[in-house]
Design a protein that fits this description.
This protein is mainly α. It is built from 24 helices and 2 strands. The chain folds into 2 domains: about 15-65 and about 340-565, Orthogonal Bundle (MetI-like fold), CATH 1.10.3720; about 75-235 and about 270-280 and about 290-335, MetI-like fold. About 75% of the residues lie in helices and about 0% in strands. The longest helix has about 45 residues, at about 1-45. It is globular and about 75 Å long.
Protein backbone atom coordinates (compact mmCIF):
# COMPACT_ATOMS: atom_id res chain seq x y z
CA UNK A 1 0.00 0.00 0.00
CA UNK A 2 2.79 2.39 0.98
CA UNK A 3 4.85 1.59 -2.12
CA UNK A 4 1.79 2.09 -4.32
CA UNK A 5 1.24 5.54 -2.84
CA UNK A 6 4.88 6.46 -3.40
CA UNK A 7 4.95 5.59 -7.12
CA UNK A 8 3.11 8.70 -8.39
CA UNK A 9 5.47 10.89 -6.34
CA UNK A 10 8.55 9.17 -7.81
CA UNK A 11 7.13 9.47 -11.32
CA UNK A 12 6.29 13.14 -10.76
CA UNK A 13 9.81 13.78 -9.42
CA UNK A 14 11.28 12.07 -12.49
CA UNK A 15 9.30 14.33 -14.83
CA UNK A 16 10.49 17.35 -12.87
CA UNK A 17 14.09 16.26 -13.52
CA UNK A 18 13.31 16.01 -17.26
CA UNK A 19 11.86 19.51 -17.21
CA UNK A 20 15.01 20.78 -15.49
CA UNK A 21 17.11 19.35 -18.32
CA UNK A 22 14.80 20.99 -20.88
CA UNK A 23 15.06 24.34 -19.06
CA UNK A 24 18.86 24.16 -19.08
CA UNK A 25 18.86 23.24 -22.78
CA UNK A 26 16.54 26.17 -23.43
CA UNK A 27 18.95 28.51 -21.65
CA UNK A 28 21.79 27.22 -23.85
CA UNK A 29 19.61 27.86 -26.90
CA UNK A 30 18.86 31.43 -25.74
CA UNK A 31 22.57 32.13 -25.26
CA UNK A 32 23.41 30.83 -28.75
CA UNK A 33 20.55 32.73 -30.39
CA UNK A 34 21.50 35.95 -28.62
CA UNK A 35 25.24 35.72 -29.23
CA UNK A 36 25.35 33.88 -32.59
CA UNK A 37 22.16 34.23 -34.63
CA UNK A 38 21.07 37.78 -33.77
CA UNK A 39 24.48 39.45 -34.36
CA UNK A 40 24.68 37.75 -37.78
CA UNK A 41 21.14 38.88 -38.52
CA UNK A 42 22.15 42.43 -37.58
CA UNK A 43 24.83 42.36 -40.30
CA UNK A 44 22.29 41.32 -42.93
CA UNK A 45 19.85 44.04 -41.84
CA UNK A 46 22.62 46.65 -41.91
CA UNK A 47 23.59 45.59 -45.45
CA UNK A 48 20.01 46.15 -46.62
CA UNK A 49 19.62 49.58 -45.01
CA UNK A 50 20.80 53.07 -45.89
CA UNK A 51 22.66 55.31 -43.45
CA UNK A 52 19.32 56.80 -42.39
CA UNK A 53 17.91 53.37 -41.54
CA UNK A 54 15.62 52.96 -44.57
CA UNK A 55 15.52 49.61 -46.33
CA UNK A 56 17.20 49.90 -49.73
CA UNK A 57 17.44 46.14 -50.28
CA UNK A 58 20.28 45.36 -52.72
CA UNK A 59 21.30 48.96 -53.43
CA UNK A 60 24.36 48.68 -51.18
CA UNK A 61 25.51 45.56 -53.03
CA UNK A 62 25.07 47.35 -56.37
CA UNK A 63 27.06 50.32 -55.09
CA UNK A 64 29.80 47.95 -53.95
CA UNK A 65 29.92 46.29 -57.37
CA UNK A 66 30.37 49.73 -58.95
CA UNK A 67 33.38 50.55 -56.76
CA UNK A 68 36.54 49.37 -58.60
CA UNK A 69 38.79 49.63 -55.54
CA UNK A 70 36.55 47.37 -53.45
CA UNK A 71 36.23 44.84 -56.28
CA UNK A 72 40.02 44.87 -56.52
CA UNK A 73 40.19 43.90 -52.85
CA UNK A 74 37.84 40.98 -53.50
CA UNK A 75 40.06 39.77 -56.34
CA UNK A 76 43.19 40.22 -54.17
CA UNK A 77 41.67 38.13 -51.39
CA UNK A 78 40.69 35.34 -53.76
CA UNK A 79 43.96 34.98 -55.65
CA UNK A 80 46.15 35.33 -52.54
CA UNK A 81 44.11 32.69 -50.69
CA UNK A 82 44.25 30.39 -53.69
CA UNK A 83 48.00 30.87 -54.14
CA UNK A 84 48.76 30.24 -50.46
CA UNK A 85 46.64 27.08 -50.59
CA UNK A 86 48.52 25.85 -53.67
CA UNK A 87 51.87 26.50 -51.94
CA UNK A 88 51.10 25.21 -48.45
CA UNK A 89 49.15 22.08 -49.37
CA UNK A 90 52.02 20.18 -51.09
CA UNK A 91 54.56 21.43 -48.53
CA UNK A 92 52.44 20.29 -45.58
CA UNK A 93 51.49 17.03 -47.30
CA UNK A 94 55.15 16.15 -47.86
CA UNK A 95 55.93 16.99 -44.23
CA UNK A 96 53.00 14.89 -43.00
CA UNK A 97 54.05 12.08 -45.34
CA UNK A 98 57.54 12.17 -43.83
CA UNK A 99 56.12 11.99 -40.30
CA UNK A 100 53.76 9.08 -41.01
CA UNK A 101 55.43 7.08 -43.78
CA UNK A 102 59.16 7.21 -43.00
CA UNK A 103 61.49 6.02 -40.25
CA UNK A 104 63.38 9.30 -40.03
CA UNK A 105 64.67 10.39 -36.60
CA UNK A 106 63.48 13.36 -34.50
CA UNK A 107 59.86 13.18 -35.64
CA UNK A 108 58.53 14.61 -32.38
CA UNK A 109 61.02 17.47 -32.52
CA UNK A 110 60.17 18.42 -36.10
CA UNK A 111 56.45 18.29 -35.47
CA UNK A 112 56.79 20.30 -32.26
CA UNK A 113 58.74 23.05 -34.05
CA UNK A 114 56.10 23.39 -36.78
CA UNK A 115 53.34 23.73 -34.16
CA UNK A 116 55.08 26.58 -32.31
CA UNK A 117 53.52 29.33 -34.53
CA UNK A 118 50.13 28.38 -33.09
CA UNK A 119 51.24 29.85 -29.74
CA UNK A 120 51.72 33.38 -31.10
CA UNK A 121 49.51 35.79 -33.08
CA UNK A 122 49.57 35.20 -36.82
CA UNK A 123 51.07 38.64 -37.40
CA UNK A 124 54.32 37.52 -35.74
CA UNK A 125 55.33 35.98 -39.08
CA UNK A 126 54.65 39.33 -40.80
CA UNK A 127 56.83 41.17 -38.26
CA UNK A 128 59.65 38.67 -38.77
CA UNK A 129 59.48 39.04 -42.55
CA UNK A 130 59.83 42.81 -42.19
CA UNK A 131 63.03 42.32 -40.18
CA UNK A 132 64.32 39.84 -42.75
CA UNK A 133 63.30 41.56 -45.99
CA UNK A 134 61.93 45.01 -45.09
CA UNK A 135 63.46 48.37 -45.96
CA UNK A 136 66.13 47.79 -43.30
CA UNK A 137 65.99 44.02 -43.42
CA UNK A 138 68.94 41.66 -43.25
CA UNK A 139 68.25 40.13 -46.69
CA UNK A 140 66.82 43.20 -48.45
CA UNK A 141 69.58 43.13 -51.10
CA UNK A 142 69.04 39.43 -51.79
CA UNK A 143 65.30 40.03 -52.22
CA UNK A 144 65.95 42.68 -54.85
CA UNK A 145 68.47 40.42 -56.58
CA UNK A 146 65.73 37.87 -57.26
CA UNK A 147 63.50 40.53 -58.83
CA UNK A 148 61.25 41.52 -55.89
CA UNK A 149 61.48 45.24 -55.11
CA UNK A 150 59.99 45.06 -51.60
CA UNK A 151 58.36 42.65 -49.22
CA UNK A 152 55.43 44.96 -48.46
CA UNK A 153 52.24 44.11 -50.30
CA UNK A 154 51.32 40.85 -52.00
CA UNK A 155 54.73 39.08 -51.62
CA UNK A 156 54.82 39.66 -47.87
CA UNK A 157 51.19 38.70 -47.35
CA UNK A 158 51.63 35.44 -49.28
CA UNK A 159 54.84 34.43 -47.46
CA UNK A 160 53.55 35.37 -44.00
CA UNK A 161 50.25 33.53 -44.56
CA UNK A 162 52.14 30.42 -45.69
CA UNK A 163 54.03 30.39 -42.38
CA UNK A 164 50.94 31.15 -40.31
CA UNK A 165 48.61 28.51 -41.79
CA UNK A 166 51.18 25.73 -42.24
CA UNK A 167 50.57 24.19 -38.76
CA UNK A 168 46.80 24.09 -39.28
CA UNK A 169 47.16 22.34 -42.63
CA UNK A 170 49.76 19.95 -41.26
CA UNK A 171 47.58 18.77 -38.38
CA UNK A 172 44.75 17.79 -40.74
CA UNK A 173 47.04 15.97 -43.15
CA UNK A 174 48.91 14.07 -40.42
CA UNK A 175 45.57 12.77 -39.21
CA UNK A 176 44.53 11.85 -42.77
CA UNK A 177 47.74 9.93 -43.48
CA UNK A 178 47.78 8.12 -40.13
CA UNK A 179 44.55 6.29 -40.99
CA UNK A 180 45.96 3.62 -43.31
CA UNK A 181 45.49 -0.14 -43.48
CA UNK A 182 48.79 -2.02 -43.81
CA UNK A 183 47.04 -4.89 -45.60
CA UNK A 184 46.62 -2.72 -48.71
CA UNK A 185 50.35 -2.10 -48.90
CA UNK A 186 51.13 -5.78 -48.21
CA UNK A 187 48.87 -6.80 -51.08
CA UNK A 188 50.51 -4.23 -53.36
CA UNK A 189 53.97 -5.51 -52.41
CA UNK A 190 52.90 -9.07 -53.12
CA UNK A 191 51.88 -8.01 -56.65
CA UNK A 192 55.18 -6.20 -57.19
CA UNK A 193 53.67 -2.71 -57.28
CA UNK A 194 56.19 0.11 -57.42
CA UNK A 195 56.41 2.76 -54.71
CA UNK A 196 55.17 5.47 -57.09
CA UNK A 197 52.14 3.42 -58.10
CA UNK A 198 51.33 2.65 -54.45
CA UNK A 199 51.44 6.36 -53.73
CA UNK A 200 48.94 7.20 -56.47
CA UNK A 201 46.64 4.18 -56.01
CA UNK A 202 46.63 3.78 -52.20
CA UNK A 203 48.03 6.82 -50.40
CA UNK A 204 46.45 9.65 -52.38
CA UNK A 205 42.96 8.09 -52.67
CA UNK A 206 43.01 7.31 -48.95
CA UNK A 207 43.98 10.90 -48.08
CA UNK A 208 41.84 12.72 -50.65
CA UNK A 209 39.17 13.78 -48.18
CA UNK A 210 41.82 15.05 -45.79
CA UNK A 211 43.41 16.99 -48.66
CA UNK A 212 40.09 18.59 -49.55
CA UNK A 213 39.42 19.52 -45.92
CA UNK A 214 42.94 20.91 -45.53
CA UNK A 215 42.53 22.98 -48.70
CA UNK A 216 39.21 24.40 -47.52
CA UNK A 217 40.57 25.26 -44.07
CA UNK A 218 43.70 26.87 -45.52
CA UNK A 219 41.74 28.97 -48.01
CA UNK A 220 39.30 30.12 -45.33
CA UNK A 221 42.02 30.98 -42.79
CA UNK A 222 43.86 33.13 -45.36
CA UNK A 223 40.87 34.98 -46.79
CA UNK A 224 39.56 35.87 -43.32
CA UNK A 225 42.89 36.80 -41.70
CA UNK A 226 43.24 40.43 -40.68
CA UNK A 227 46.52 40.78 -38.77
CA UNK A 228 49.01 39.86 -41.52
CA UNK A 229 47.56 42.10 -44.28
CA UNK A 230 47.30 44.93 -41.74
CA UNK A 231 50.98 44.69 -40.76
CA UNK A 232 52.75 43.86 -44.02
CA UNK A 233 50.12 44.49 -46.70
CA UNK A 234 50.94 48.16 -47.25
CA UNK A 235 48.65 49.48 -50.01
CA UNK A 236 47.64 45.95 -50.99
CA UNK A 237 44.00 45.83 -49.88
CA UNK A 238 42.02 42.68 -49.14
CA UNK A 239 38.49 42.09 -47.87
CA UNK A 240 39.53 41.84 -44.22
CA UNK A 241 41.32 45.20 -44.23
CA UNK A 242 38.48 46.77 -46.24
CA UNK A 243 35.98 45.89 -43.50
CA UNK A 244 38.19 47.57 -40.92
CA UNK A 245 38.73 50.71 -43.02
CA UNK A 246 35.07 51.06 -43.94
CA UNK A 247 33.77 50.61 -40.39
CA UNK A 248 36.48 52.23 -38.26
CA UNK A 249 37.98 54.69 -40.74
CA UNK A 250 35.02 55.85 -42.83
CA UNK A 251 32.10 54.92 -40.55
CA UNK A 252 30.41 53.44 -43.63
CA UNK A 253 28.50 50.67 -41.87
CA UNK A 254 26.37 49.70 -44.86
CA UNK A 255 29.31 48.92 -47.14
CA UNK A 256 31.15 47.37 -44.21
CA UNK A 257 28.23 44.98 -43.76
CA UNK A 258 28.25 44.18 -47.50
CA UNK A 259 31.97 43.32 -47.38
CA UNK A 260 31.36 41.25 -44.24
CA UNK A 261 28.74 39.19 -46.08
CA UNK A 262 31.16 38.71 -48.98
CA UNK A 263 33.80 37.64 -46.46
CA UNK A 264 31.32 35.22 -44.92
CA UNK A 265 30.46 33.60 -48.27
CA UNK A 266 33.73 31.68 -48.93
CA UNK A 267 33.82 30.56 -45.30
CA UNK A 268 30.28 29.18 -45.56
CA UNK A 269 31.09 27.47 -48.86
CA UNK A 270 34.25 25.96 -47.39
CA UNK A 271 32.28 24.75 -44.38
CA UNK A 272 29.66 23.22 -46.66
CA UNK A 273 32.25 21.43 -48.79
CA UNK A 274 34.06 20.16 -45.71
CA UNK A 275 30.79 18.92 -44.22
CA UNK A 276 29.90 17.15 -47.49
CA UNK A 277 33.35 15.58 -47.66
CA UNK A 278 33.16 14.33 -44.07
CA UNK A 279 29.82 12.64 -44.82
CA UNK A 280 31.19 11.00 -47.97
CA UNK A 281 34.34 9.76 -46.28
CA UNK A 282 34.45 6.06 -45.54
CA UNK A 283 36.32 4.40 -42.71
CA UNK A 284 39.98 3.75 -43.53
CA UNK A 285 40.52 1.55 -40.49
CA UNK A 286 38.00 -1.23 -40.00
CA UNK A 287 37.83 -3.71 -37.14
CA UNK A 288 40.12 -6.08 -39.06
CA UNK A 289 42.54 -3.42 -40.23
CA UNK A 290 46.24 -3.53 -39.38
CA UNK A 291 47.79 -0.11 -38.61
CA UNK A 292 50.47 0.83 -41.11
CA UNK A 293 54.07 0.78 -39.87
CA UNK A 294 56.76 2.39 -41.98
CA UNK A 295 59.72 0.26 -43.02
CA UNK A 296 63.29 1.61 -42.91
CA UNK A 297 64.59 2.91 -46.24
CA UNK A 298 67.95 4.67 -45.77
CA UNK A 299 67.84 6.94 -48.83
CA UNK A 300 64.15 7.88 -48.44
CA UNK A 301 64.53 8.47 -44.70
CA UNK A 302 67.53 10.75 -45.28
CA UNK A 303 65.65 12.77 -47.88
CA UNK A 304 62.64 13.15 -45.61
CA UNK A 305 64.88 14.16 -42.69
CA UNK A 306 66.56 16.78 -44.87
CA UNK A 307 63.21 18.13 -46.06
CA UNK A 308 61.75 18.36 -42.57
CA UNK A 309 64.94 19.97 -41.29
CA UNK A 310 64.70 22.68 -43.96
CA UNK A 311 61.06 23.43 -43.10
CA UNK A 312 61.84 23.44 -39.36
CA UNK A 313 64.79 25.80 -39.90
CA UNK A 314 62.59 28.20 -41.87
CA UNK A 315 60.03 28.22 -39.05
CA UNK A 316 62.76 28.76 -36.45
CA UNK A 317 64.28 31.52 -38.59
CA UNK A 318 60.96 33.37 -38.61
CA UNK A 319 60.41 32.97 -34.87
CA UNK A 320 64.05 33.54 -34.01
CA UNK A 321 64.24 36.82 -35.91
CA UNK A 322 61.24 38.19 -34.01
CA UNK A 323 62.84 37.21 -30.69
CA UNK A 324 66.23 38.66 -31.69
CA UNK A 325 64.71 41.93 -32.93
CA UNK A 326 62.70 42.32 -29.74
CA UNK A 327 65.96 42.44 -27.77
CA UNK A 328 67.95 44.59 -30.26
CA UNK A 329 68.49 48.07 -28.82
CA UNK A 330 68.05 50.03 -32.06
CA UNK A 331 67.58 48.10 -35.29
CA UNK A 332 69.74 47.87 -37.40
CA UNK A 333 72.36 50.27 -36.00
CA UNK A 334 72.74 48.98 -32.45
CA UNK A 335 72.01 45.26 -32.06
CA UNK A 336 73.20 45.08 -28.46
CA UNK A 337 70.66 43.03 -26.44
CA UNK A 338 68.52 45.07 -24.07
CA UNK A 339 65.03 45.18 -22.59
CA UNK A 340 64.29 48.57 -24.19
CA UNK A 341 61.41 47.35 -26.35
CA UNK A 342 59.87 45.36 -23.52
CA UNK A 343 60.04 48.41 -21.27
CA UNK A 344 58.61 50.60 -24.02
CA UNK A 345 55.77 48.19 -24.67
CA UNK A 346 54.84 47.21 -21.13
CA UNK A 347 55.39 50.53 -19.35
CA UNK A 348 55.67 53.51 -21.69
CA UNK A 349 52.97 52.31 -24.14
CA UNK A 350 50.94 50.81 -21.24
CA UNK A 351 50.69 47.47 -23.00
CA UNK A 352 51.15 45.86 -19.60
CA UNK A 353 47.49 46.61 -18.86
CA UNK A 354 46.50 45.15 -22.23
CA UNK A 355 48.59 42.05 -21.53
CA UNK A 356 46.84 41.60 -18.18
CA UNK A 357 43.48 42.05 -19.96
CA UNK A 358 44.48 39.28 -22.38
CA UNK A 359 45.27 36.95 -19.48
CA UNK A 360 41.91 37.70 -17.87
CA UNK A 361 40.03 37.27 -21.15
CA UNK A 362 41.84 34.02 -21.96
CA UNK A 363 41.23 32.67 -18.45
CA UNK A 364 37.54 33.59 -18.61
CA UNK A 365 37.23 32.07 -22.08
CA UNK A 366 38.86 28.83 -20.92
CA UNK A 367 36.77 28.55 -17.75
CA UNK A 368 33.33 29.70 -18.85
CA UNK A 369 33.72 28.54 -22.46
CA UNK A 370 34.59 25.00 -21.42
CA UNK A 371 31.71 24.89 -18.90
CA UNK A 372 29.16 26.26 -21.38
CA UNK A 373 30.24 24.08 -24.30
CA UNK A 374 30.48 20.85 -22.34
CA UNK A 375 27.16 21.41 -20.57
CA UNK A 376 25.45 22.11 -23.88
CA UNK A 377 26.99 19.04 -25.51
CA UNK A 378 25.98 16.86 -22.54
CA UNK A 379 22.37 18.05 -22.65
CA UNK A 380 22.26 17.32 -26.37
CA UNK A 381 23.80 13.87 -26.22
CA UNK A 382 22.68 12.43 -22.89
CA UNK A 383 19.17 13.74 -22.26
CA UNK A 384 15.92 13.15 -24.14
CA UNK A 385 12.92 15.15 -25.36
CA UNK A 386 12.40 18.58 -26.98
CA UNK A 387 13.65 17.41 -30.39
CA UNK A 388 12.94 20.70 -32.15
CA UNK A 389 14.94 22.60 -29.56
CA UNK A 390 17.81 20.13 -29.91
CA UNK A 391 17.88 20.66 -33.67
CA UNK A 392 18.19 24.42 -33.13
CA UNK A 393 21.01 24.04 -30.60
CA UNK A 394 22.90 21.60 -32.85
CA UNK A 395 22.65 24.02 -35.77
CA UNK A 396 23.78 27.06 -33.77
CA UNK A 397 26.64 25.06 -32.23
CA UNK A 398 28.27 24.49 -35.64
CA UNK A 399 27.49 27.88 -37.20
CA UNK A 400 30.50 29.68 -35.60
CA UNK A 401 32.90 27.41 -37.52
CA UNK A 402 31.69 29.04 -40.75
CA UNK A 403 31.80 32.61 -39.40
CA UNK A 404 35.10 34.53 -39.60
CA UNK A 405 36.07 36.36 -36.42
CA UNK A 406 36.02 39.72 -38.21
CA UNK A 407 32.41 39.16 -39.31
CA UNK A 408 31.34 38.02 -35.85
CA UNK A 409 32.95 41.07 -34.24
CA UNK A 410 31.21 43.38 -36.72
CA UNK A 411 27.89 41.72 -35.93
CA UNK A 412 28.50 42.41 -32.24
CA UNK A 413 29.00 46.11 -33.04
CA UNK A 414 25.69 46.38 -34.87
CA UNK A 415 23.78 44.29 -32.34
CA UNK A 416 25.16 45.27 -28.93
CA UNK A 417 25.76 48.94 -29.77
CA UNK A 418 22.04 49.41 -30.41
CA UNK A 419 20.43 51.45 -27.64
CA UNK A 420 17.33 49.23 -27.76
CA UNK A 421 19.38 46.15 -26.83
CA UNK A 422 18.89 45.31 -23.12
CA UNK A 423 22.51 44.13 -22.99
CA UNK A 424 23.85 47.36 -24.48
CA UNK A 425 25.84 47.88 -21.27
CA UNK A 426 28.14 45.01 -22.27
CA UNK A 427 29.50 46.98 -25.23
CA UNK A 428 33.24 47.78 -24.90
CA UNK A 429 33.55 45.59 -21.79
CA UNK A 430 35.96 42.71 -21.24
CA UNK A 431 32.90 40.52 -20.64
CA UNK A 432 31.70 41.01 -24.21
CA UNK A 433 35.19 40.36 -25.58
CA UNK A 434 35.23 37.09 -23.63
CA UNK A 435 31.77 36.08 -24.83
CA UNK A 436 32.67 36.90 -28.44
CA UNK A 437 35.83 34.79 -28.17
CA UNK A 438 33.89 31.86 -26.67
CA UNK A 439 31.38 32.00 -29.51
CA UNK A 440 34.11 32.37 -32.14
CA UNK A 441 35.78 29.10 -31.07
CA UNK A 442 32.60 27.37 -29.86
CA UNK A 443 32.31 24.77 -32.62
CA UNK A 444 35.70 23.12 -32.14
CA UNK A 445 35.09 22.78 -28.41
CA UNK A 446 31.59 21.46 -29.07
CA UNK A 447 32.83 18.79 -31.49
CA UNK A 448 35.54 17.78 -29.00
CA UNK A 449 32.96 17.42 -26.23
CA UNK A 450 30.53 15.49 -28.44
CA UNK A 451 33.31 13.10 -29.48
CA UNK A 452 34.19 12.44 -25.83
CA UNK A 453 30.54 11.97 -24.84
CA UNK A 454 29.78 9.59 -27.71
CA UNK A 455 32.55 7.34 -26.44
CA UNK A 456 30.47 6.75 -23.29
CA UNK A 457 27.83 4.06 -23.53
CA UNK A 458 24.28 5.38 -23.20
CA UNK A 459 23.62 2.58 -20.69
CA UNK A 460 25.01 4.85 -17.95
CA UNK A 461 22.07 7.22 -18.40
CA UNK A 462 19.63 4.33 -18.93
CA UNK A 463 20.62 2.66 -15.65
CA UNK A 464 20.50 6.00 -13.82
CA UNK A 465 17.02 6.68 -15.16
CA UNK A 466 15.82 3.21 -14.14
CA UNK A 467 17.12 3.84 -10.64
CA UNK A 468 15.50 7.31 -10.61
CA UNK A 469 18.91 8.97 -10.20
CA UNK A 470 18.79 12.61 -11.42
CA UNK A 471 20.78 13.26 -14.60
CA UNK A 472 22.93 15.90 -12.89
CA UNK A 473 24.18 13.32 -10.36
CA UNK A 474 25.16 10.97 -13.20
CA UNK A 475 26.83 13.92 -14.90
CA UNK A 476 28.82 14.84 -11.78
CA UNK A 477 29.76 11.33 -10.64
CA UNK A 478 30.31 9.49 -13.93
CA UNK A 479 30.39 11.62 -17.06
CA UNK A 480 32.48 14.52 -15.80
CA UNK A 481 35.32 12.43 -14.31
CA UNK A 482 35.55 10.19 -17.39
CA UNK A 483 35.58 13.19 -19.77
CA UNK A 484 38.00 15.32 -17.74
CA UNK A 485 40.93 14.89 -20.21
CA UNK A 486 38.71 16.26 -22.99
CA UNK A 487 37.78 19.18 -20.72
CA UNK A 488 41.46 20.00 -20.22
CA UNK A 489 42.05 19.91 -23.98
CA UNK A 490 39.09 22.22 -24.54
CA UNK A 491 40.29 24.68 -21.88
CA UNK A 492 43.77 24.74 -23.42
CA UNK A 493 42.31 25.33 -26.87
CA UNK A 494 40.15 28.22 -25.63
CA UNK A 495 43.00 29.83 -23.67
CA UNK A 496 45.60 29.74 -26.47
CA UNK A 497 43.21 31.02 -29.11
CA UNK A 498 41.93 33.78 -26.82
CA UNK A 499 45.51 34.95 -26.24
CA UNK A 500 46.34 35.10 -29.95
CA UNK A 501 43.04 36.18 -31.57
CA UNK A 502 42.85 39.55 -33.29
CA UNK A 503 40.00 39.57 -35.77
CA UNK A 504 37.26 38.58 -33.30
CA UNK A 505 37.92 41.47 -30.91
CA UNK A 506 39.39 44.21 -33.12
CA UNK A 507 36.03 46.06 -33.25
CA UNK A 508 34.96 45.58 -29.64
CA UNK A 509 37.66 46.96 -27.34
CA UNK A 510 37.92 50.33 -25.62
CA UNK A 511 41.10 52.02 -24.27
CA UNK A 512 40.39 50.37 -20.90
CA UNK A 513 39.70 46.90 -22.32
CA UNK A 514 42.39 46.73 -25.01
CA UNK A 515 44.06 43.31 -25.21
CA UNK A 516 47.68 42.52 -26.06
CA UNK A 517 47.07 41.31 -29.63
CA UNK A 518 45.35 44.61 -30.47
CA UNK A 519 48.12 46.55 -28.73
CA UNK A 520 50.60 44.96 -31.15
CA UNK A 521 48.65 46.42 -34.08
CA UNK A 522 48.67 49.85 -32.43
CA UNK A 523 52.43 49.68 -31.83
CA UNK A 524 52.96 48.69 -35.46
CA UNK A 525 50.84 51.64 -36.64
CA UNK A 526 52.93 53.94 -34.41
CA UNK A 527 56.13 52.66 -36.03
CA UNK A 528 57.33 50.87 -32.88
CA UNK A 529 58.09 47.59 -34.65
CA UNK A 530 60.56 46.45 -31.98
CA UNK A 531 58.00 46.90 -29.22
CA UNK A 532 55.39 45.13 -31.36
CA UNK A 533 57.78 42.18 -31.78
CA UNK A 534 58.43 42.17 -28.02
CA UNK A 535 54.71 42.01 -27.23
CA UNK A 536 54.17 39.23 -29.77
CA UNK A 537 57.00 37.28 -28.16
CA UNK A 538 55.42 37.83 -24.73
CA UNK A 539 52.10 36.45 -25.99
CA UNK A 540 53.95 33.42 -27.36
CA UNK A 541 55.72 32.99 -24.03
CA UNK A 542 52.45 33.22 -22.08
CA UNK A 543 50.86 30.68 -24.42
CA UNK A 544 53.84 28.36 -23.96
CA UNK A 545 53.62 28.60 -20.16
CA UNK A 546 49.88 27.96 -20.36
CA UNK A 547 50.46 24.94 -22.59
CA UNK A 548 52.95 23.50 -20.11
CA UNK A 549 50.48 24.14 -17.28
CA UNK A 550 47.70 22.33 -19.14
CA UNK A 551 50.05 19.44 -19.93
CA UNK A 552 50.83 19.08 -16.21
CA UNK A 553 47.13 19.40 -15.40
CA UNK A 554 46.30 16.73 -17.98
CA UNK A 555 48.89 14.39 -16.43
CA UNK A 556 47.44 14.97 -12.93
CA UNK A 557 43.88 14.57 -14.17
CA UNK A 558 44.78 11.34 -15.95
CA UNK A 559 46.19 9.89 -12.74
CA UNK A 560 43.19 10.98 -10.67
CA UNK A 561 40.33 10.11 -13.01
CA UNK A 562 41.55 7.59 -15.59
CA UNK A 563 42.91 4.82 -13.34
CA UNK A 564 39.96 2.64 -14.35
CA UNK A 565 41.46 2.29 -17.83
CA UNK A 566 44.38 0.26 -16.42
Amino acid sequence: MASALQLPMVKQNYHWIDRLAHILLGLIAIVLVYFVALPLGAILIQALQSDSGEFVWLANFVAYAKTPALLGSLWNSLWVSGLVTLIVLPLAFTFAYALSRSCMPYKALFRGITLVPLLAPSLLSAISLIYWFGNQGVLKAWLQSVGIDEIYGAPGVVLAECIAVFPHTLMILVTALSMSDARLFEAADAMGTTAVRKFFTITLPGAKYGLISAAMVTFTLVITDFGIPKVIGGNFNVLATDVFKLVIGQQDFAKGAVVAILLLTPAVLSFGVDNYVSRRQTAMLTARAIPYRAKPSPLFDRLMTLYCAVIALLVLAMLGMAVFASFATFWPYNLTPSLRHYTLGLLDAEVGVAFFNSIKMAGGTALFGTALVFTGAYLLEKTKGMDSLRALVRLLAVVPMAVPGLVLGLGYIFFFNATTNPLNGLYHTLTLLTLCTIVHFYTTGHLTAVTALKALDSEFEAVSASLKVPFYKTFWRVTLPVCTPALVDMARYFFINAMTTISAVVFLYSPETKVASIAILNLDEAGEMGAAAAMAVLIGLASTVATLFFMILAWWVHRRTQAWKT
